[in-house]
């Protein structure tokens, strides 16, 4: 299995190869794009989709969207909350690749710190 940092590099290289870094993006735009993926997951949930539900869509030549429950080939786009959560992670990976962030180390460090925090720290309800 690939390390987190290997996945960061792969995601960022793919974004570069696909032209998403031809023009520089602001840090705010990058964060907004991550947030937009979270909003898409929330919209799927609001539309009655289950957190584990996956389906595939393909645009027809007539502009209609076709839907199926399994991927026929690589022209079918995976959809649903799992796909949106994956998009969040991919965008975070891309950002870390752009800025040279050692995400693997940051995760380990933050998880170790979180383990020291008290039960329901901060007392927030939600």
Automatic annotation (TrEMBL):
Gene3D superfamilies: MazG-like. This is NTP pyrophosphohydrolase MazG putative catalytic core domain-containing protein. It comes from Paenibacillus odorifer.
